[in-house]
Design a protein that fits this description.
By secondary structure, the chain is mainly beta. It has one domain. It is built from one helix and eight strands. An eight-stranded antiparallel sheet has the order 4-7-6-5-1-2-3-8, with helices on one face. The longest helix has 7 residues. The chain is globular, with a radius of gyration of 14 Å. It starts with a helix and ends with a strand.
């Protein structure tokens, strides 16, 4: 799916980024997120309030994390999420601004497509 579609369907605010891994050969970035499920549009009281999901960004053209850090399991709370079209055809840039123990971190990932799945549902 496209990044814009993901942002329309998943609300990331107040969720936590647990871990980020890059596979430069495969041109993939994986982001483990502790998602506030109770803030999602389709949430029902029978579901867990917090779920862990894996966001996989494919055909990554650019990855930038400012400042460059090794993310720990403490998590970084997502403050804002933004998508912007790229000047490079079908690519879009996903930007997360997150806050954690090290202060504010900005993630910018330009990719062609994304997938998101839950680990514990």
């Amino acid at each position: 799916m496209k990044v814009a579609e993901l942002i329309r369907n998943v609300y990331f605010h107040d969720s936590s980024i647990l871990h980020v891994t890059r596979d430069e050969r495969a041109r993939e970035v994986r982001v483990e997120i502790e998602l506030c499920n109770w803030m999602q549009a389709g949430y029902t009281s029978e579901q867990p309030e917090i779920v862990v999901g894996i966001l996989t960004l494919q055909h990554v053209q650019k990855f930038r994390m400012q400042p460059e850090l090794e993310l720990s399991a403490d998590g970084h709370e997502i403050l804002t999420t933004e998508v912007t079209p790229s000047v490079h055809g079908d690519y879009e840039t996903l930007t997360f601004v997150a806050r954690g123990g090290e202060g504010v971190i900005v993630f910018e990932i330009t990719c062609q497509s994304v997938s998101f799945h839950f680990q514990n549902m």
